[in-house]
Amino acid sequence: PAIPALLLSLRRRRLPPLPAVAARAPRVPAVAARVPAVAARRGTHPGAVATGAEQRPNPSSQQFLPGNSAAVAAMDIYNVEAAEILAHETLNLPIGEAAPIYEKLLATFPTAAKYWKQYVESYIVTNDEETAKQIFSRCLLTCPHINLWRCYINFIKKVNSKRGSEGLEETKKAFDFMLNYVGNDVASGPVWMEYIAFLKSMPVMTPQEESHRMTTIRKVYQKAILVPTSHVEQLWKDYDNFENSVSRTLAKGLLSEYQPKFNSAKAVYRERKKYIDDIDWGMLATPSTGSYKEEQQCLAWKRLLTFEKGNPQRIDVTAANRRITFTYEQCLMYLYHHPDVWYDYATWHAKNGSTDSAIKIFQRAVKALPGSEVLKYAFAELEESVGAIQPAKTIYESLIAENASMSSLAHIQFIRFLRRTEGIEAARKYFLEVRKLPSCTYHVYVAYATMSFCLDKDAKVAQNVFEVGLKRFMQEPGYVLEYADFLCRLNDDRNVRALFERALSLLPPEESVEVWKRFAQFEQIYGDLSSMLKVEQRRKEALSRTSEDAVSSLENTLYDVVSRYNYMDLWPCSSKELDYLSRQEWLAKNMSKKADRSVMLTSGGGSTSDKGTVGVGANAKLLPQSTKVVRPETSRMVIYDPRQMKGPVISATSSGYTKEVDEIFKMLSPPLMSFITNLPAIEGPSPDIDIVLSVLLQSTLPTGHDVGKPSAPVPGPATTDISGPRNQNGSVRRPPKRKAVERQEEEDAATAAQSRAMPDIFRLRQIQRSRGGGPAQSGSAAMSSGSMFSGEQSANSSS
User: Fold this and answer.
1) Is the predicted pLDDT of residue 723 greater than 60, yes or no?
2) Which of 210, 249, 388, 781 is 20 to 30 A from 746, comparing alpha carbons?
3) Which of 405, 383, 409 is nearest to 394 (CA)?
């Protein structure tokens, strides 16, 4: 059942009884009703995922809510968000209620170490040691995750803490067992240090026991410093201190022996960490979705595997293989549903001479991915290669049984397998059984006939099989072509022609294209000129019934000659000529369609009285007569010209400017306003703003002080106000005797304008152009504003 659907199941209290470990657990209450509480503790609504200070709704999470029962039941069982919600909510439940949820989760995600750890810790807290041991036995060997194994070792230490020397020995065995499996993990450094500390704390009673303990500690140190972990340097320092504390004389020789090995491990760790950092260790194993993240994770694991297979530390083969095996097992925790990883793992074992290990990997693979046919074929191939015929036969039989309705490929492969392993008679007997099945396709007939002809050298049996199949599969073009190829190998040209004639008389025209093509090729190679041309003409006539342009399909072209006189990759023309002829052939086939479209367009442009004269010619009869088709009036169409397009209508003020322009003028400094008002109107394409601004920034503009000088009068916009010339801020110009006051006001206005944000110059020019209405008006506006350089008042209003 789907994990999201588990919420619905929990809500209805209809869960099935638990298997094995948690069989005595009671039924689960309505956990789904508590999902909103989980979301509330996270600070979001139940259908949202918090990302820092930002919260974004998550539609997929909303489908897990108890109210959406129908959607919940239909959700994907590998929905990671639903699994996380369940796992988080289960933390607050009693173990009796939580156990069914964990079983559902782990049935879908059997390699999720964090769920196994959470599950077993729930029993450890309740002191249910037997159930905890059963759970550990189910997950430890398939989940080489360091946190799960540390949970295991802590559990063993807790269980044996009060058992004296016997308990210490059991704990020591547990440490050895753990480090044998996960001791090569990049994060196993603390475990090595914990084990050494445990060995040092063990009580000893005799000098012999002390000597044995020191020897054991030395061996553990020497193993630990060879593993490229994050604590390798600390382990080396501790080992140095340990040897010097035991015997300085002995320490010198041992340290000099292991110093290069330690340096190699430290260097490999730095390289190894680059690959480790690219891996997402919290990802759940789901079937392939083709997502970018999934592809990146696959590549990251393959890079790490390639790195480990190169044996960069140059350790012995046994240790290197153990490290590669550990990496593969870790990879399968996250790429559990990827058949290529299973296949690579098994073939790596087979190449290294461990066939038994490869077989075990394949057994795990087909159990993990029962729907992967290719893995089963690879498994059967391995079994057959080592002489295990009966196990291979069992695999083929399971393939056929699991795909009873669509198993033609499995039947064909099994026939070949029987012929290889049991002989011709066994293959023939099985074929006679298969051909009676209603699901048998023509592929089985072709495969068996070809095998009989090529391998058993029995042409008569092969031809009989083809003839029997022809009665059943005459309507299959593929079968007809295979039979024709077989007859060509027999040099039986008469039966080849007879086969083509029989098939073409029964096949509908739309399904006979390939058969006609092969018939024409046969006559081109083996027939005389008259038969070749005759078949070609018949082909054109037959296929013209399926073409919309029957007339052009019947015409002979130079391209047909090229098709008749080429052989394999040899052509009677250059590649350029061939491209040209192919293009002409394509144009000829599509010419009528283009003509129809053009006539339809032309007929829409005339009036009702002109319809009788439009489209007179060869294509007139092809026009549709339906009156429901709405056609455009092409006579009213005009050429697109953006210069003739009118801008938006903007109301103008009494001063001759728009309100937008007046508002912008109030924000401008006097020099900038002088520059803008004398710019010509924009016509044609808009300029590149970045380039224009860069030019302006490199130009020297007049300052506010220069504007007030008599030698350089400030030009202002044209106005119809009779009160006299105005300054740029709209005030009446003062007499010269108040020059100082005017300069002060202008400087204040310039300072205030510069403190505000600059307007968009080009937006302003577009507004002015829209107000002008056209090129002529824009030009007059430019002339009017240009007259202000001499201090003259604009005469626009008077004119």
Assistant:
1) no
2) 781
3) 383
E strand or H helix at 505, and its extent?
helix 493-506
Residue 301 has pLDDT above 70, yes or no: yes
Spatial CA neighbour of 430 closest among 444, 441, 446, 450? 444
Residue 401 gets which letter from DSSP?
H
**Distance from CA of residue 388 to its chain's centroid?**
40
pLDDT at 626 over 70: no
Nearest to 289 by CA among 328, 335, 341, 343: 335
Which residue do the tokens 């007569």 mark?
625
Q: How many angstroms separate the CA atoms of 436 and 413, rounded? A: 18
Residue appearing with tokens 């009673």: 205
pLDDT bracket for residue 693 (50, 70, 90): confident
Q: What is the pLDDT of residues 257-288, one digit of tens each?
A: 999 999 999 999 999 999 999 999 999 999 98
148, HSE (Cβ side, Cα atoms, 13 Å) = 29
Q: Give the pLDDT band (50/70/90) at residue 237.
A: very high
Q: What SS3 class is residue 566?
A: coil
Q: What are phi and psi of 415, to 5 degrees?
A: -60, -45
What are the tokens at 535? 């078949």
What is the rounded CA–CA span in Å between residue 782 and residue 774?
Answer: 12
Assign 699 a pLDDT band (cuts: 50, 70, 90).
confident
Instruction: Return d(Cα 36, Cα 28) in angstroms, integer.
Output: 18
Helix (H, G, I), strand (E, B) or coil at 466: helix
Kindly state the percentage of the chain with pLDDT values over 70: 67
| CA–CA gap between residue 125 and residue 364 (Å, rounded) | 32
Is the confidence at residue 221, as pLDDT, over 70? yes
Joined tokens for residue 742: 């005017």
pLDDT of 658 higher than 80: no
Measured between alpha carbons, how far is 347 from 365 in angstroms, rounded to an integer? 12
For the chain, the distance separating the N- and C-terminal CA atoms, rounded to the nearest angstrom, is 89
C-alpha span between 715 and 468 (Å, rounded)? 103
Q: Coil, strand or helix: which one is 567?
A: strand
Q: Which of 597, 524, 537, 599 is nearest to 564 (CA)?
A: 524
b/e 441-458 (16+ beta carbons within 10 angstroms → b): bbbbbbbbbbbbbeeeeb
Task: Return the percentage of the chain with pLDDT > 90, whole number.
Answer: 43
pLDDT digits 0-9 by tens, 603-615: 444 444 443 333 3
Look-up of token digits 């039924």:
27
Phi, psi of 51 (to 5 degrees): -125, 90
Q: Which amino acid is at 235?
A: L
> Which residues, 6 or more positions from 224, have their beta carbon under 8 angstroms from its beta carbon?
189, 192, 193, 196, 232, 235, 239
Strands 48-51 and 54-57: antiparallel
Query: Which is nearest to 300 in space by CA: 272, 323, 322, 261?
Result: 272
Within the chain, what is the greatest distance between any pair of CA atoms? 127
Q: Which residue has the tokens 């994907």?
A: 76
* Residue carrying the six token digits 């924009």: 682
Q: What is the DSSP string of 584-644?
A: HHHHHHHHHHHHHHHHHHHHTTS-GGGTTTTT-STTGGGS---TT-----GGG-----GGG
Q: Which range, 73-77, 441-445, 667-671, is most confident?
A: 441-445
CA 546 – CA 508 distance, rounded (Å): 10
Three-state SS annotation for 10-59: HHHCCCCCCCHHHCCCCCCCCHHHHHHHHHHHCCCCCCEEEECCEEEECH
Give the three-state DSSP class for 780.
helix
Instruction: Name all domains of the chain by residue range, CATH numbers in brackets.
Output: 1-93 (no CATH), 109-174 (no CATH), 183-277 (1.25.40.10), 643-790 (no CATH)
SS3 186: coil
Of 125, 96, 78, residue with least CA distance to 21? 96
